[in-house]
Amino acid sequence: MKRSLVMLCVFCVLSGYAQQADIRMNAFINQLMGRMTLDEKIGQLNLPAAGDITTGQASSAGIAQKIEQGKVGGLFNIKGVEKIREVQKLAVEKSRLKIPLLFGMDVIHGYETVFPIPLGLSASWDMALIERSARIAAEESSANGICWTFSPMVDLTRDPRWGRIAEGSGEDPYLGAQIAKAMVKGYQGNDLKKNNTIMSCVKHFALYGASEAGRDYNTVDMSRIRMYNEYFLPYKAAVDAGVGSVMTAFNEVDGIPASANKWLMTEVLKNQWGFKGFIVTDYTAINEMTAHGLGDLQTVSGLSLKAGIDMDMVGEGFLTTLKSSLSQGKITLKQIDAACRKVLEAKYKLGLFDDPYRYCDPQRAKAFQSTNTYRREARNTAAESMVLLKNSSGLLPIKKSGTIAVIGPLANSKENMLGTWAVSADYSTPVSLLTGLQQVAGSDAKILYAKGSNLSEDSLFEQRVSVFGKPLEMDRRPEEEILNEALAIAQQSDIIIAALGEAAEMSGESSSRTNLDLPQSQKRLLEALLKTGKPVVLVLFTGRPLTLTWENKNVPAILNAWHGGTETGNAVADVLFGTVNPSGKLSSTWPQNVGQIPLYYNHKNTGRPLPEGKWFQKFTSNYLDVTNEPLFPFGFGLSYTRFQYSDIVLNQSAVSRSEKLTATITITNIGDHDGKEVVQLYLNDPVASITQPVKKLIGFQKIFLKKGESREIQFVLTVADLKFYNSDLKYEAEAGDFNLYIGTNSKDVKSASFVLKK
Ligand code: BGC
Questions:
Q1: I want to staple 114 with a disulfide (CB 3.0 to 4.6 A). Which of 53, 110, 530, 542 is the partner?
Q2: Does some domain include residue 679?
Q3: Cβ 150 under 6 angstroms from ligand 1
Q4: Residue 1: is its pLDDT beyond 90?
Q5: Which CATH number do you get for residue 678?
Q6: What would the pLDDT profile of 24-38 be if each residue is shown by its tens digit?
Q7: How are beta strands 675-684 and 696-705 bridged, if at all?
Q8: Are strands 252-253 and 256-257 parallel, antiparallel or unpaired?
Q9: What is the pLDDT of residue 15?
Q10: 499 in the same domain as 425
Q11: Is ligand 1 within 6 A of the CB of residue 167?
């Protein structure tokens, strides 16, 4: 009683402070807006791109002049503290009201020190590690003038054809939500005013990962039940974690493009979820609504403002049309004021009105360049994100001795290790696999290298892949010559490491693929290497799940390294030589072939499910040519050791709504190595008012066990874990039977059942 009274007092004091701060902020902004002209207010809603990259059709012109005229609210993707300082100077010294600019950037998986692509990060299932990667990105970028990042990207996807799967956390709502929270916390810390925290922008609201056929920017059509129970969870988690801004998606939601969707932006985001920050569109998303069929630029800009959008990225629809719309009575001054207030509030919260150069301290920026701490973190994070997909007869880890051949188009590649969206990376520092192996093995082993093949034999594909990004580092010699050189090296070696997969630009934005096999040139190389009879380890670099049915059958060991960032090569070497025991688990299902997509573990049952263990049964839900099984299920990943799971013990078999249920399981490391395991908890509600997933993740714990060690793990469930949105979109738990599963992945599980009492 006493304790809760103290808690209540603390809460009252804190909310009192927050209210005071809000009152001060409102007074400041009221006074400022009282002095602003209509043009200046509209100017705050304008976000041009001014960096070294452009990702859409439009580019922003005459920016300096516009800044001086108060027609710019923020800029993005400028790199360099001195440059940013100069541009800020234009705003605070040359514009009439001296309102500072926001400086945004796509700091997606690190700033200069690059961490694994987000899909890789998610495979670590380590929230503290993920939060730290965002923290380091905030430290580095904030010292370089950036105060706002367009991250995290939390779009769930079940379609690996979609290239942007690389930027998110895979297919699971619960895991995605935990990661969303961790990243927002990492970027924003506890106090946005500090000069080492930056404002986060969760994107792309909403449902962007559900584009039809995995084709980028494509149509999305989804029931509200699915939105609320699945796809919305990570966005909402970011909002609950206090994310400062939200970016719209390119796609439509329920027939209306997200950037004009009032239901989505105002009803769901602001009214239902209580979002208090500002909403920015994606790159030219307002303009694109003309192609969507919603009208000319003036019309779509008006729709967007009325839907609740506050800032227009790049397209200048707001800048060029809102004034006319206002004079024609199509929008109101109140709507413009509301958007302007949101943008000014963000600047206030970041402390930019106190000191517009808060994030522009060249001394701080320099200090980071020499630190090794972040590189160590990046190396550890990359190793933790790797997923061991196959390891026949314990081929891995390998010894640091003898002759090791590292062969493949990605064996000596630095830039590709960074993966997609590494716009601010230091491209001189990434460590290739070859260098990593040489560094970690030292003089203990002889490392030989050959390229063996190009990434792709298709020159048109090559051109498309490198249109915007880096070239594919092609070797123009005849294919035979490149292969023979590699085979000669392979013959001299004791073991072959084949470094194959995707170049950085083969996944990411506008990099959808319909064939997820290794390209033919690489497959040919792999076959030839296997024919030598030497043991082959496939180290895979990829931004997405690939279809590796043949490889899984024929190659004895497969380690998936993703695009692991700056320290990739060292981290792969740490794992191959056994300094680090791999513990990553897939956050998305890997299909056997592309025809199975979308394939995801938390699917619903049909009325005619295929009986367990069968390949095919007429008139059930299956295929003639392939089983329903994935190649690798969600949550899957091997270790150099083995973990044994006991049966689940529940503290009771029936719980009331106010009681807690405790599920206990004992995990034992029965192998020969110390190692980490991600213990996964799934739930199924077998009888409910609406159909339910056959299984859904509701908890996990990543634990470390020394060899021979046993640990009792407990999961405590409350009624909140049993709730779902029903057909009235009410969030409720329904009484009745439930099944719980605990296991090492979504397929290999122990089970127990309990009842939720009425
Ligand atoms: C992407 C966003 C990104 C923006 C700014 C767009 O093309 O969809 O994710 O934040 O560009 O670079």
A1: 110
A2: yes
A3: yes
A4: no
A5: 2.60.40.10
A6: 999 999 999 999 999
A7: antiparallel
A8: antiparallel
A9: 73
A10: yes
A11: no
Q: Are strands 724-725 and 252-253 parallel, antiparallel or unpaired?
A: unpaired
Domain that holds residue 387: 377-583
In CATH, what number is assigned to the domain containing residue 485? 3.40.50.1700
Contact 139 CB / ligand 1 (< 6 Å) = no
Q: Which of 106, 159, 172, 282 is catalytic?
A: 282
Residue nearest to atom 5 of ligand 1 (CA): 283
Confirm whether 734 is domain-assigned: yes
Q: Tell me if 490 sits within 8 A of 517, measured CB to CB.
A: no
- Rg for the chain (alpha carbons), in Å? 27
Give tens-digit pLDDT for 295-324: 999 999 999 999 999 999 999 999 999 999
Q: Rounded to an integer, what distance in angstroms lies between the CA atom of residue 598 and that of residue 117?
A: 22
Both structure tokens of 631 = 């190649």
Which residue's alpha carbon is at the smallest distance from atom 10 of ligand 1?
150
Tens digits of residue pLDDT in 100-133: 999 999 999 999 999 999 999 999 999 999 999 9
Summarised one tens digit per residue, pLDDT across range 573-595 is 999 999 999 999 999 999 999 99
Atom 8 of ligand 1, residue of closest alpha carbon: 282
Going from the C-alpha of 511 to that of each of 217, 516, 593, the distances in angstroms are: 11, 12, 19
Pair 396, 471 in one domain = yes
Number of domains in the chain: 3
Question: Do 416 and 565 share a domain, yes or no?
Answer: yes
**Dist. CA 127–CA 526, nearest whole Å:** 36
Closest approach atom of ligand 1 to CA 250? 8
DSSP at 743: E
The residue whose CB lies within 8 Å of the most ligand 1 atoms, and thus the one to mutate among 106, 117, 287, is: 106
Nearest to 595 by CA among 672, 516, 684: 516
Give the SS3 label for residue 561.
coil
Q: Does residue 564 sit in the same domain as residue 660?
A: no
Ligand 1 pocket residue status of 174, Cβ below 6 Å: no
Q: Is 203 in the pocket of ligand 1 (CB under 6 A)?
A: yes
pTM: 0.96
- Would residue 173 count as lying in a domain? no
Expressed in angstroms, the distance from the first to the final Cα of the chain is: 29
Residue nearest to atom 6 of ligand 1 (CA): 283
Pair 416, 535 in one domain: yes
Backbone angles phi, psi at 698, to 5 degrees: -130, 5
Q: Report the atom number in ligand 1 closest to the C-alpha of 55.
A: 7
Does residue 381 fall inside a structural domain?
yes
Instruction: For residue range 385-431, list pLDDT tens digits in order.
Output: 999 999 999 999 999 999 999 999 999 999 999 999 999 998 999 99
Report the C-alpha gap between 418 and 710 in whole angstroms: 38
Residues 470 and 561 in one domain: yes
Regarding whether 450 and 531 lie in a shared domain, the answer is: yes
Q: Is 39 among the catalytic positions?
A: no
